[in-house]
Specification:
- With 430 residues, the chain is an alpha/beta fold.
- The chain has four domains: 3-123, 3-Layer(aba) Sandwich (Rossmann fold), CATH 3.40.50.12160; 125-253, 2-Layer Sandwich (Transcription Regulator spoIIAA), CATH 3.30.750; 256-373, Transcription Regulator spoIIAA, CATH 3.30.750.200; 378-429, OB fold (Dihydrolipoamide Acetyltransferase, E2P), CATH 2.40.50.
- The protein contains 13 helices and 18 strands.
- The chain has helices at 12-27, 51-67, 78-82, 84-88, 105-115, 162-166, 174-186, 211-221, 240-248, 265-271, 277-290, 309-322, 349-372, and strands spanning 3-8, 31-32, 41-46, 72-77, 95-97, 119-121, 144-151, 170-171, 191-196, 227-230, 255-257, 295-302, 326-331, 378-387, 390-395, 400-403, 413-422, 425-429.
- A six-stranded parallel beta sheet has the order 2-1-3-4-5-6, with helices on both faces. A five-stranded mixed beta barrel has the order 14-15-16-18-17.
- The longest helix has 24 residues, at 349-372.
- It is globular.
- 41% of the residues are buried.
């Protein structure tokens, strides 16, 4: 039996697409093996968010070729899309597919076996109008399933190459989303995480059907679904309808990840993020008033070109004032081909490293404060693993909860009384 090994770089969308391609291989009789094992076919699903992502992709190609010089090597995804000529020129690369036509990957492998001629299939993503379906019926993790509902982004932030790699917003057909959600629930998944390149941009290209319509339909039409989580949403997309849905639906969780990227207006302007800190803060306060139990996490980029120490301290203090519950902190990484790469006043690496460290310490502080505020409350927890005598899972607000109780079954929801705080984790009892 022929074997295939995948290595996936980058985001959750890439992970989803790798799962989808792996299913295509399995349907054609291939056996999946670990990336570190010798395989007949290696698939590298690439990321191009940073120049480092490109370098990692090239490193994985060389590693696969070294592991099995006779293997067929397919390189797919964002780096293959934006630099197809460069990828095709790397020794050992047999097949190059961009961010479309991944459903043809097994056909291309079989074709290569016969003809031994390099295949390059990279379309102009800016002309794409249709969502490419890669259906998934199983995940290795049996508790939480990721479901891709859209592709592409229309924002063109100055630091980001992704619109050039993925094209504009393309939404998956509502009936197809609902059908797959039902399939996943029928297989035993308790929670579905809605994901995409610009997840809540879903519906921008559809007539009379919005992201809030999809949330409502998922909440009411998928039988047995216990939890819906939104992977990320821009503040401009947090509409009154969505606030009302989170408040009233027993299925949509009380956690939103809303990227801010900077707490300084001038930096936001250079990033081409179309809001001010005052606008963001006003909406955040409305959101917290309407949904008192809501947990809000965020993304921050530090060391963006031109960011002074004063700018950083302003960002630090603003984040502390807004009291986000956790931060995902990234040092700005220059990406050739983006406007930000050509900007003056690039911030030195050691300065960026120091600022990341300071914000991560603030994140731990904010997360600990939020965890402490949960002591004495009863939270609904989905248990996912067992470790060191504890059953461990996530509350709907995404805090990690640990319980010592043999009666608790994994992949089930329980109401847990929170009794103590262990760093940023919660301890509780049924």
């Amino acid at each position: 039996m022929a074997t295939v090994a995948f290595h996936t770089l980058g985001c959750k969308v890439n992970s989803y697409e790798s799962e989808g391609m792996l299913e295509l291989f399995k349907k054609r009789g291939y056996q999946s093996v670990d990336w570190k094992e010798k395989a007949d076919v290696y698939v590298i699903n690439t990321c191009t968010v940073t120049n480092t992502g490109d370098a990692k992709s090239r490193q994985m190609i060389r590693r696969a070729k070294k592991e099995n010089p006779d293997a067929i090597i397919a390189v797919v995804g964002c780096y293959a899309q934006v630099a197809s000529g460069e990828v095709a020129g790397i020794e050992g690369v047999d097949i190059v597919i961009g961010t479309k036509h991944r459903e043809k990957i097994v056909d291309y492998i079989e074709d290569y076996k016969v003809n031994h001629k390099q295949i390059v299939d990279v379309s102009d993503v800016m002309k794409l109008k249709q969502f490419e379906k890669l259906n998934i019926t199983s995940f290795e993790n049996r508790t939480r399933a990721f479901m891709k509902i859209q592709d592409g982004c229309n924002n063109f932030c100055t630091y980001c190459i992704i619109p050039y790699a993925r094209g504009g917003v393309r939404s998956r057909a509502p009936e197809d989303v609902l059908r797959q959600a039902q399939e996943l629930v029928n297989q035993g998944f308790v929670e579905i995480v809605l994901t995409g390149i610009h997840t809540a941009g879903y519906g921008m290209d559809l007539e009379n059907y919005s992201f809030s319509d999809l949330l409502r339909d998922l909440s009411t039409k998928v039988e047995g679904l216990k939890r819906i989580r939104i992977s990320s949403i821009e503040m401009s997309q947090v509409t009154p309808e969505i606030i009302n849905l989170i408040a009233t639906s027993p299925v949509i969780v009380d956690h939103l990840h809303i990227p801010i990227q900077s707490g300084t207006d001038e930096t936001l302007r250079r990033m081409a993020r179309h809001y001010t800190t005052a606008e963001f803060e006003e909406n955040l306060n409305k959101l917290k008033t309407a949904l008192p139990t809501l947990s809000v996490t965020t993304d921050v980029i530090v060391g963006f070109p031109g960011e002074t120490e004063e700018d950083f301290e302003h960002t630090y203090n603003w984040i502390k004032k807004c009291h986000f519950n956790q931060l995902h902190v990234f040092p700005y990484s220059m990406r050739s081909g983006t406007p930000a790469a050509k900007m003056a006043n690039q911030v030195p690496g050691d300065v960026k490293k120091d600022r990341v460290k300071r914000l991560m310490a603030l994140s731990d502080e904010l997360k600990h404060d939020f965890a402490l505020s949960q002591v004495g409350k009863t939270l609904e927890v989905l248990f996912e693993e067992e470790k060191d005598g504890y059953k461990i899972g996530h509350a709907s607000n995404y805090l990690r909860v640990k319980v010592k109780d043999d009666a608790i079954k994994l992949n089930h929801l329980y109401d847990i009384k929170i009794t103590a705080c262990d760093g940023v984790d919660l301890l509780g009892e049924k």
